[in-house]
Amino acid sequence: MDTITAIILAVVEGITEFIPVSSTGHMILTTRLLGFAEQNSLMKTYEIVIQLGAILAIALVYRQRVLNLLGLGRRSQSRGGVMPASRLNLLHVILGIAPALAVAFFARDFIKSLFGATTVLWALVAGGILMIIAEWVNRRKIRITAHELDDLSYGQALAIGLYQIISVLWPGFSRSGSTISGGMLSGVSYKASADFSFLIAIPIMCAASGYELLDSYRDFTSDTIGFFVVGFLVSFVVAYAVVILFMKWIQKIRLTHFAIYRFILAAVFWLFIMR
Question: Which residues form a coiled coil (predicted)?
Answer without folding.
Answer: none
